[in-house]
Amino acid sequence: MSSQAQVIKTRLPSPPPSAEALLKAVHDAVENLKAKDVVEIDVRGKSTVTDHLVIASGTSTRHVKSIADEVVRFAKQLDVMPLGVEGEREAEWVLVDLGDVVVHVMLPRVREFYALERLWTVGDQHPDADETVGGAEGRR
């Protein structure tokens, strides 16, 4: 008794949607389900994994999962299948990898703890942006 191996056939849309079109779909999806504090971070030049991060908060684990599901649904309307979806079971932090765009949907306490916005924007601020810390007095 031998069983046939199942082959999963995947196909890419031709041509694939632009990163901007994918970002618009993601923003429409998170807006549709009223995600909180949506932030987009351009990580081109900082990461070889993706070009854009979108970080959003949900009010409960059910809300977090629903937002992530909506992102997947909107992406599929563009004929884009997620490369991966992680964290759906606990739904405190769900990651949706759409290739050029990676979406993080998190509970506020989880978002605050991991502080992805700070992690990915370190070095983006000009050194003279905050004169009170190490400013003119610190240089004398």
UniProtKB/TrEMBL annotation:
InterPro entries referenced in this protein's UniProt entry, alphabetically: Iojap/RsfS/C7orf30, NT_sf
Record's subcellular location: Cytoplasm
A molecular function GO annotation: ribosomal large subunit binding
Primary location class: cytoplasm
Keyword Acyltransferase: no
GO BP, one annotated term: negative regulation of translation
UniProt key word Glycosyltransferase: no
Keywords carried by this UniProt record: Cytoplasm, Repressor, Translation regulation
GO annotations of cellular component type: cytoplasm
Role noted for this protein: Functions as a ribosomal silencing factor. Interacts with ribosomal protein uL14 (rplN), blocking formation of intersubunit bridge B8. Prevents association of the 30S and 50S ribosomal subunits and the formation of functional ribosomes, thus repressing translation.
Family under the similarity heading: Belongs to the Iojap/RsfS family.
Assembly information from the UniProt record: Interacts with ribosomal protein uL14 (rplN).
Protein name (record): Ribosomal silencing factor RsfS
Naturally occurring in which organism (per UniProt): Aerolutibacter ruishenii
Gene: rsfS
